[in-house]
Design brief:
Number of strands: 9
Shape: globular
CATH superfamily: Nucleoside Triphosphate Pyrophosphohydrolase
Structural class: mainly beta
Radius of gyration: 16 Å
Strand content: 35-45%
Helix content: 10-25%
CATH topology: Nucleoside Triphosphate Pyrophosphohydrolase
CATH architecture: Alpha-Beta Complex
CATH class: Alpha Beta
Largest sheet: 7 strands, mixed
Order of helices and strands: EEHEHEEEEEE
Number of helices: 2
């Protein structure tokens, strides 16, 4: 068996007025991928700080962020999902523009590939049982609030 691929990633904990920005993907059911935070790959030659701001913009549709602080780094083996070990840089970001409590969005990939639409809900059969509503919206939640 070949060696595991090593990648560098960033994770964005975005907080505004005491609320944490989280989302659910429209193309996967909640039971499969759960609640997400913006995250992604660091490109060749890109610093973790530049990557985290780019990923935040791409995945939220917002543009005015600042890094509050770097929370740390961790090594995470994501096997069996992928045969990969991720070096994760974790940041706390603040957003400095008005946001609704919920809004539709899409992952824009910074023009590197076609946008992944997060505007259409998945078919009912793909939704997690007992979880009504459209699972494709960005949602600011109070830190520590129950996710019902």
């Amino acid at each position: 068996m070949s060696a595991k691929v090593h990648t560098s990633k960033v994770l964005c904990y975005i907080v505004r007025e005491g609320q944490l920005l989280v989302f659910r993907h429209a193309d996967y059911d909640l039971e499969r991928v759960g609640i997400q935070i913006p995250a992604g790959s660091i490109r060749h030659g890109e610093s973790p700080e530049d990557a985290v701001l780019r990923e935040a913009r791409e995945e939220t549709g917002l543009s005015q962020f600042s890094i509050a602080r770097k929370l740390g780094e961790t090594i995470y083996d994501i096997t069996p999902y992928r045969y990969e070990i991720q070096h994760r840089h974790v940041f706390h970001l603040q957003v400095h523009e008005p946001t609704e409590r919920r809004w539709p969005s899409q992952e824009r990939h910074d023009g590197q590939q076609p946008p992944r639409a997060l505007l259409d809900p998945p078919p009912r059969s793909a939704r997690a049982p007992g979880r009504p509503g459209c699972p494709n919206r960005r949602d600011l939640r109070r830190v520590g609030q129950d996710q019902h």
